[in-house]
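Schema walk-through. Below, the input block comes first and the output block second. Nothing else is stored per chain. Lengths vary across the set, and this one has 132 residues.
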Amino acid sequence: MKTQIKQVTAATLIVLIFMAVGIKANASTTKLTNSNNTETTLQLEDWMIDETIWNASEEAIFVSETDAALEVENWMTNHRIWHAHHHFQFDTELTLEMESWMTDEAIWTVNNVMAEEELTVEDWMTDSKIWK
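--- output ---
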């Protein structure tokens, strides 16, 4: 445990030393190079200082909307709807059957189809005068 703590401490120290040596900051590199950014002056508008806007009650400015009242309807509590035994009609697939073409040897025999001719290297392919 002691050795592990010492190793972590040593590694941290080495990393900090490398970071300190690697940073080369001086006054010329830390100056702001583009300091031409100026903000425009703020302009007061009439509505910003209008007493009637700021002293008005919230009800006059904001309309509060309410959700429609929720009601329990008959179908929601109908026992027959929620506990009915629905009889669904499921699709059934036909059984698979072997057909004659599936077992026909002539269909599944692979015939050697015409093979391509072997490529040959011709003189013009290796002629250095052509490829300069």
